[in-house]
Amino acid sequence: MGPLLELDGVVKTFTQKRGGKRDVQAVAGVSLSVGKGETVGLVGESGCGKSTLARLALKLVDPTAGRILFDGADVTPLGSRQMLPVRRRLQAVFQDPLASLNSRMTIAEVMREPFDTHGIKLGQGLTPRIRELLSFVGLENIDLEKLPPQFSGGQLQRIAIARALALEPEIIVADEPTSALDPSIQAQIVNLMLFIQRKRGISYLIISHDLDVIGHVADRIAVMYLGTIIEQGPAAEIMARPLHPYTQALLSAAPTLAARRERGWKRIMLSGDPPNPANVPSGCRFHPRCHLARDVCRETVPPLRMVSGGNRLVACHLAPEETAATGAEIGLGRRGVAAA
Predict the structure, then answer these.
(1) Domain at 141, CATH number
(2) Are residues 55 and 200 both part of a single domain?
(3) What pLDDT score does 326 carry?
(4) 17, 23, 292, 321: which one has the fewest Cβ atoms less than 10 Å from its Cβ?
């Protein structure tokens, strides 16, 4: 059985006109897939290209190069009208639910939009269907006639999720679905998404800057840096033993309580900000901020190569071939977090 959603070597280049016309490659040849019933987490700092990749996956923007496949079919050349049948199966939840909902429409009107857009006529059955969706995400019938500004951030995200579920999609692309919420509300939304997956078998591509949150929900994790994937593999393995120094730094920024108790754990402080994508460093894109960088890192681009018997992908010259290695090559501590 092939993947439900597949990005095959996608590139997205924007033209920057400020300060002189030049091309900026926001996404640089990324390949990523999501299987049926699977959750894939995409993590990285702000500005690394995660949201651009999410929009490419949703076909909200067209790739400069590469292919987007849905259920084995190449949808890259399809226009908006041709994409409509695909969009019934592929839905989105965005970071700011208030911005994605029309503040002048009641929740009942907001929830009717997907059905109207796709020409689905349920007649008198539409209102019960909408009530069922709202109840499924923990809201009440009384909320139908309210306007979006009358709700809290957590309630708005529940409404956004309910709207995404209206057409019974097979996959939801969620771009930072919890980052604008308080920690306690974040947990509620994460639990709701997991509940939906158990009940409906939905696939997720979840984009986040928080590796700790992604580690709790994802089956596989892909780590993005400056437009490229630099590590990918099973979530449990990446959380227990990150191989790329950048992944180690991300994980050290939000360690578990158990990790804090370990004597080998140390916070890795990255120096500087991510480089300008219009001026990508030579060699490894991460080497200017990596405390383990060698001459080869500055001179040669590391390939995204298989390690651990084909179970992990990592783009680092210093990563061991097997995750069972001692980790001395990349300075791993007891938990798999590099000691600075």
Answers:
(1) 3.40.50.300
(2) yes
(3) 35
(4) 17
Residues 277 and 211 in one domain: no
Q: Which domain holds residue 253?
A: 242-330
Tokens representing 167 are 């057409």
Total of domains in the chain: 2
Q: How many CB atoms lie within 10 A of CB 205?
A: 28
Amino acid occupying residue 108: A
How much is the pTM? 0.88
Whether residue 247 sits in one domain with residue 171: no
Q: Please report, as a single letter, which amino acid is at residue 284.
A: C
Check the CA dihedral 238-243-247-248 and report its sign. positive
Q: How far apart are CA 298 and CA 42, in angstroms?
A: 26
**146 CB-near residues (< 8 Å, 6+ apart):** 106, 107
Pair 96, 207 in one domain: yes
d(CA 24, CA 280): 9
Please state, in angstroms and rounded to a whole number, the distance separating the CA atoms of residues 64 and 214.
28
